[in-house]
Write a structure and sequence with these properties.
The protein is built from two helices and nine strands. The protein is mostly beta strands and about 160 residues long. Strands 1, 2, 3, 4 and 9 form a five-stranded antiparallel beta sheet that branches. Strand 6 and strand 7 form a beta hairpin.
Amino acid sequence: MKVQDNAVVAFHYTMTDQDGEVAETSRDGEAATFLFGYRNMIESLEGSMMGKEVGDTYTITLPPELAYGRLLTDNLMRVGLKNLQYEGKLEPGMMVPLRTKEGLRPVTVVKVGKFNADIDINHPLAGKTLTFDIEIVDVRESTEEERKHGHVHGPGGHEH
């Protein structure tokens, strides 16, 4: 089966930044799995998989605009500490999840106060050109329930 709309795609990847440093990889764990066509990942990366099959490997380089966006210098916000998910002492420079209506979003702590923190809401990889080495490891038809919910269920996906 080829990667197409409504397919469940499992893939391994290694993501490197413009300096060749590995920013993230799935190679030492489970493959990343997603429901194709539901905007559950970087759109340009998802689009690059269209028509691929199990065993296909390729490399794609994405400029910031097609990856996590440009780095915006005025993207600071003050939030209550209760809106940040962390353990231990919160310190500047830490990357922590911020609770939003859309779910958790990674942010970087700039300054910590007694009740609030100033955070940079740029994605930690904003402003970076990223290269992805991709290997498609599985493609299957999605279930009706997965399509209805807009995400993968079971191994590598969401459990209800």
